[in-house]
Amino acid sequence: MEKSRSKAALWLLVIPYIGLLWPPFYNIREPALFGFPFFYWYQLLWVPITAMLTYIAYRSTRHDD
Questions:
Q1: What is the value of pTM for the model shown?
Q2: CA 50 to CA 42: how far, in whole Å?
């Protein structure tokens, strides 16, 4: 069970890759947020999301013996 759980946690690392894989999806100006076009704030939003998913994957696969 532990092995399958850690493998599932590693799949979390694929989410940011998929979210940023196809630039034409987010290469638009609207909706703007605080004056930033969607293109920029969408990518910047992925920075903390990716950090959190990486932390979760790391904690799930770490083996403290």
A1: 0.78
A2: 12
